[in-house]
Amino acid sequence: MIKIKFTLIFIGLLLFSINGFGSDNNCLNCHLDWESEEGSAAKYARDIHSQKGLGCTECHGGDPSLDDMDDVRDSKGYRGVPNHLEVPDFCARCHADAAYMHEHNPSLPVDQLAKYKTSVHGQRLFARKDKKVANCISCHSVHEIGTGQMPYSSTYPTNLPATCGECHADKEYMAEYDIPTDQLEKYRSSVHGQALLQRGDLGAPACNDCHGNHGAAPPGVASLAAVCGVCHALEAELFAISPHAEAYRENDFPMCETCHSNHDIIKPYDEMIGAVGSAVCTNCHSADDGTIGLSTADSILVSINNLVQAHAQAKRRLNEAIYKGMMTTDEEFLLKEVDQTLIQARTLVHSFNMDSVAPKARAGIAKADTIIANAAGLIDEYYFRRKGLGVATLIITFLAIMLYRKIRKIESR
Amino acid sequence: MDGFQSGPIKNSYKWLDERLKINALIEYMGSKEVPRHSHSIFYYLGGITLFLFIVQVITGILLLMYYRPGADSAYESVKFIVSEVSFGWLIRSIHSWSANLMILAAFFHMFTVFFTRAYRKPRELTWYTGMGLLALSMTFGFSGYLLPWNELAFFATRVGTGMAGAIPVIGDFLMVIMRGGEEVTGATIGRFFGLHVAILPLLTTGLLTMHLIFVQRQGMSEPMHWAGKKREEKKFMKFFPNFLYRDALVWLVALNILALLAVIFPDGISVIHWPLGEKADPFAPPPPVIRPEWYFMFAFQALKMFPPHIWFIEGELFGIIIFGLGGLIWMLIPLLDRGASENKPSKLVMTFGAFVILFIVVMTIVGYLVE
Lengths: 413, 371
Prior knowledge:
The structure holds two protein chains of two kinds. Chain A is mainly α. Chain A folds into four domains: 1-81, no CATH class; 87-146, no CATH class; 169-267, no CATH class; 293-411, Butyryl-CoA Dehydrogenase, subunit A, domain 3 (Up-down Bundle). Chain A has helices at 2-19, 26-34, 40-43, 48-51, 57-60, 69-74, 87-95, 98-104, 112-118, 120-128, 136-140, 160-168, 171-174, 183-189, 191-198, 207-211, 224-229, 233-240, 243-251, 257-260, 293-323, 329-348, 354-411. In chain A, helix 9 (112-118) packs across helix 10. The longest helix of chain A is centred in the C-terminal third of the chain and has 58 residues, at 354-411. Chain A is flat and about 125 Å long. By secondary structure, chain B is mainly α. Chain B starts with 6 loop residues before the first helix and ends with a helix. Chain B has helices spanning 7-20, 22-31, 43-64, 74-83, 88-115, 124-146, 151-164, 171-179, 186-218, 239-264, 294-305, 315-331, 333-336, 347-369; strands at 33-36, 235-238, 268-269, 272-273, 309-310, 313-314. Chain B has a domain at 40-218 and 243-296: Cytochrome Bc1 Complex, Chain C. Chain B has a two-stranded antiparallel ribbon with strand order 1-2. In chain B, strands 3-4 form a two-stranded antiparallel ribbon. In chain B, strands 5-6 form a two-stranded antiparallel sheet. The interface between A and B is medium-sized, with 20 and 24 residues.
């Protein structure tokens, strides 16, 4: 009898361990059975919430120990699946609760919902009950949510343009909003897009770096300089004290965008400034507009071009000396300084003031001239060494021949 | 003294001869003879090695005038030598080229002595001192490599001294002694500098003097196939002036080659190169390729090819033991090759020599190819 009891207990324990009998995890047990391998339940293992130890009931409520779906729906606290309009508040139950979030990730902000309500997305969702605008899961996915540092996450910098583009590049989907849908295409060809998407430079801005993320909105004219100035601080500072600053304000010109455009910003080139050709200055200025705009632009271009030419010549002469095997460490260091000066001079263009650009360009040209002179000296030294070698070789060869003759003379005796 | 019949030179010579008996020395040298045969050219290899050693001493002394040992000054002083000091670049270039050529000449010299079995009685001591000189030359190379304190030298020395740590029992102690601590630091430069400019020159001078005295006392070894020949059947030349003049001619040719290499390739060529590059930074990631000087490459490569464990012994340790035993057999060949003194041919010795050369050449080539 005792044996039978023990056998029954053993079989019971075995069933318990195999089937999860009495387990808290009945949500996953059922959903994994019903769904495909690409289903929500399977994906959830990669979700940051799962990694933080949160289960299904933390969001969806209900009693997970029940093995009948109808019983779960009827159980206490069951919240089920929110509809599109309910999602922000659904997520904010935890994400706007500072005390709760502190237990799981103290560094994560808790103002996402507040910001979302200020965004174009949030305003349309709450005020107009627009079911097409993005809510939390549109960008973060549903059960595969990752942080912005996780490469598989939809909000990882290199994935983010495609995440935004899922709606914003869809002409049909965006038709009713009357806004362009070529931003993603333009961004991909831009200097920022190439840096991020082709070179994998995570320092390059994605959509959210300019538009914000939870408070996403198109930057207004007034805030554009601040947006670009986050990274291009010096340019923004110089622009703010330039003669253009006031004129732009008066005419409501967007600061950086007027010359550089927005989503399709190309790598700046020197001829962007000047009085002719592809110079953007001619978009607003003309020779008879009563300002010194074009003449200043032309002078700045001349200064920059002079520095560029001096830099190229210095580099060419230095490479000649390097190719000849001369010691050029100091000159190479000086050339780096000229590189730096050229970058600074190009940055100073944003002051639109010759008095700023010209001295910097002159300083760079002076350094380039030093390199050119030193490189010429090194190349002369190279030829001096060759001549010296020729003379030494001749002397040694002459001595060797004399010695050889002496040996022949001695041995012929 | 045909050329000095009269005048101040003759008077000076006479003055010196009265005091130093120079004529007696010339007469003694004139009485010495050097065998002439199809392999006589091998007799000049020792002279070339000696010439390059003299170049090393002279250029080394010149470099010493500006070189400052220490982690904060070594790299800077070498940079100063090659960029600011007049002909400093040339002196460093000659020193480096001469070092490499000297070891190459010493290797050739050793192998020609081995294959002609010139180490046989009564020249065993000449062989032992020669082997000692080769070891000292390689130590010169190893210690000198670190002195510029540049990136490559730093990491190569770290690997090289680390290998010494694999020697059983005394390995760790030896490594700490060599490095002047647990790691390669400024203290290591001090040690290597002292070794390079004081201890090694002292030992080399002593051993070289002995080596030269043995050569002078015993003369050049005759080829083995001369055994049993009558004197009339053998050819000789006088040591002075014939051989000495020929030696001087070879030295001039060597000087010319050295000058060409030093001026045209001041930083070396291909795998034999010594660009100053970046200053050593112990915290920087090691360069992708760390390799020793070419004359250590065969040992370095062979040690890398040993499996992690052979029986119960670590692969690297096993390799060091094998190399130690191989080196010992090579060193003691005059004792082991007893038939040489009786002019008996030995296929075993020739095969062993050929295997050693093949091993060194193949391992060196593989060492550079696998990178």
